[in-house]
Design a protein that fits this description.
alpha+beta, 350 residues, Creatine Amidinohydrolase, 3-stranded antiparallel β-sheet
Length: 350
């Protein structure tokens, strides 16, 4: 059984557990995850014993070749009507859809025809990375990690944030990445104190902080990494803050393990920074899940009460931000294991 057929089977198991007859999946990322066919503009209907891909005729042969475990259906009318016809034909009375990712009009159509709202089923499967999925994630992180060693010596006084942004993208693509996993953050000096700074034409000056928050996509999977260093001779304040953030991140990484609550990982990081007197300057959560999306389940913060499971991939990224001066964030992507975690971005020195 290939990994995508297994995912369909796992989803069918969830349908039985939730006492549902079927679920219609309309989000492109979720459909690609389940079928292995990453293409826009088609729908998936999964029952307890079968799966149908509602595809346009022009995609039929390609779909059959790449998703042989799913029965293709070429609709005569709309895709939505094909779903309703299959539901009626196979008597799938308790059919659900995920309202979080549905359009307004289509959501109303499903409700009008008696479909129930049920979110999170596919998302719960996506949280665990296994097989080739884990390998692709490792590769995306390896590329990002290696890119830091290549770009750092090229960041000279007078370079703009955007010029570094563009070269970093080029370096990752030259190593096999499809592209960046988000809008890369390159922050010089005071801009490094802005967690979601938009890279600009600002030029790097001597003796100031450099923050790089970036990642890439490899075979649909995203990496995320942040490195901060001082260009020139670091100030005593920068060295102190950096050492605190590094100790915080080490504490968080040491806490990551299957069975540990995500809140406990956040607390491990936050306590180090708070005990050092900088708690008010740690202004975001400690991390988030990564996979087909750069931000996905689970979140690692003070609010999300969820136990980590082996195979989950998350970031650990504490930071201290001194407005008008500099910011320090250190981030690694990790894979949760039964005994700890595998640091996927460790090829990039901190």
């Amino acid at each position: 059984m290939n990994i995508h057929a297994k995912r369909i089977k796992d989803l069918q198991g969830l349908l039985k557990r939730e006492r549902l007859d079927a679920i219609v999946v309309t989000r492109n990322l979720d459909i690609g995850f389940l079928t292995g066919y990453h293409m826009d503009d088609y729908l998936l209907l999964v029952s307890r014993s079968a799966a149908w891909g509602i595809v346009p005729n022009m995609l039929l042969q390609d779909f059959k070749a790449k998703a042989p475990h799913v029965e293709p259906v070429v609709p005569e009318g709309s895709f939505e009507q094909a779903v309703l016809d299959l539901r009626r034909k196979y008597k799938l009375a308790k059919t659900a859809f995920d309202p979080e990712y549905e359009t307004y009009n289509r959501g109303n159509l499903w409700r009008k025809n008696g479909l129930a709202e049920k979110g999170g089923l596919v998302g719960s499967l996506r949280a665990i990375k296994e097989g080739q999925e884990a390998q692709d994630l490792r590769k995306a992180c390896l590329i990002a990690g290696k890119a830091f060693a290549l770009i750092k010596p090229r960041i000279k006084t007078g370079r703009t944030e955007l010029s570094v942004y563009r070269e970093l993208e080029d370096i990752m693509q030259a190593m096999g990445a499809k592209g960046p996993s988000f809008n890369l953050i390159v922050g010089f000096g005071p801009n490094s104190a802005l967690p979601h700074h938009v890279s600009s034409e600002r030029k790097l000056k001597n003796n100031e902080a450099v923050l790089l928050d970036y990642g890439c996509v490899y075979n649909h999977y995203c990496s995320d990494i942040t490195r901060t260093y001082f260009h020139g001779r670091p100030t005593e304040e920068f060295k102190k803050v950096y050492s605190i953030v590094l100790a915080s991140q080490k504490a968080g990484l040491a806490k990551v393990k299957a069975g540990v609550n995500a809140i406990a990982v956040d607390k491990a990081c936050r306590d180090v920074i708070s005990d050092a007197g900088y708690g008010q300057y740690f202004i975001h959560g400690t991390g988030h899940g990564i996979g087909l999306e750069i931000h996905e389940f689970p979140r690692v913060n003070t609010r999300v009460d969820v136990a980590l499971r082996a195979g989950m991939a998350v970031t650990v990224e504490p930071g201290i931000y001194l407005n008008g001066k500099f910011g320090v964030r250190i981030e690694d992507s990790v894979l949760v294991t039964r005994t700890g975690c595998e640091i996927l971005t460790k090829s990039a020195a901190k």
